[in-house]
Amino acid sequence: MKINALKVTAVNIPLLKPYHIAVLGTVESTQSVIVEMHTDEGLIGIGESDPALMFTGESQQTVMTMLQHHLGPAVLGMEPRQIENIHARMAAVTVGNPFAKAAIDLACHDLIGKSFNAPVYQLLGGLVNERIPVMWSLGSDTPENNAADAVAKVEEGYGTIGLKLGLLDPKEDVDRVAAVRKAIGDDIHIRCDANQGWNVGTAVSTIQELENYGVAMVEQPVPKHDLAGMAEVVRAVNIPIGADESLSSPQDALDIINAKAADFFSIKTTKHGGLSPSKKIASMVQTTGGKFFINSMIEMGVSVMSGLHFAASTPRLFEIGHALNSVRRLKDDILKEPAHYEGGEIVVPQDRIGLGVELDEDKMERYQVGHFWVKE
Prior knowledge:
It contains 13 helices and 16 strands. The protein is α/β, with parallel strands linked by helices. It has a seven-stranded parallel beta sheet with strand order 7-8-9-10-11-12-13, with helices on one face. A four-stranded antiparallel beta sheet has the order 5-4-1-16. β8, α7 and β9 form a beta-alpha-beta unit.
């Protein structure tokens, strides 16, 4: 089987409501890229990219450019089932650009599953988890609004509430967490994410205040490159610290492990360049006794399903809610059959092959903002 064409489409879908995040600001729509990888045997693999400048310096525009002029032409004629060769070819073409590479990786995995008539999770190690608990993350807002939204989500079945911190004054952030804890009681988990919004001193003092409210973890409290600062925070507080923006590649994982800069590691399949690099990161973390949680970008259904297959096949996941539901923030999705949720869990589809995704062509046409073909 050989890759003979790529159709690449930029897709923007509005969010149900604006999402306010430290550093990134206000997000109002997806900025995604869909790859349809065609082969000489007639099979088509689907991949997705969800770039963000705050992570790797990539945007929807840079991903489109890389796929059109560099990565796309590089993989034409290659065997998509030889995934390590695909990654070696992409690495020879350009350093970095993991979000652009992820779209090709996911499409290849979808093709591998389809060619063997098997779901992707079987290719990644088999079914370990049939259901994954998910969380609902609240953007920066007033304590009253966050508390009301948290109660509504708990009533829907969520067992974990996330709060975005770092955009407002630290005291306001603590007040928000306190209000949510009071509103939802002590049996619901709370996760927090500062998205690089603090310096070390502010992070330590704020997180120490959060210890009064049963917070399960604080994610990325300081800037991504400051591993020494992350390690200082880890040593100074009692709440576990997670690394997200700091972690893009297997080398980043090794650096974080050596610096003792995090207790938990955030896996986003598109952030790392796809499922293959994500599995390598997971193996490193597991070998050193660490744990990780599955996160998501502001993404559509293909990326959500890739994260679900990763989670389904991976032991030692964080015991509380994972961020595998960003698609539920959107006004619509591009899949004919979206991921299936039951209360506060996402259910692994065991009756679909590949990633288990099929594009809705009408919706692709409705939400696309540009497309092109890469052909031999």
